[in-house]
Amino acid sequence: MRAISMLLGRLACHLALSAWVMGLARLSQELPAWGVVEPMNARTTIELPTEEDGLSGL
Length: 58
Hints:
50% of the residues lie in helices and 0% in strands. It is mainly alpha-helical.
């Protein structure tokens, strides 16, 4: 009986932890849509100097 109780306790803990992780993953996907954070796969563009800037000799 005690082994069954321990097994059920571990199962409940595992399910609670899994639900928390899944909720966290879903929240992290929705935050960029709210404008809170930028998506992790967002790329930043770097503009290189052009001849119009007068920096063609670099």
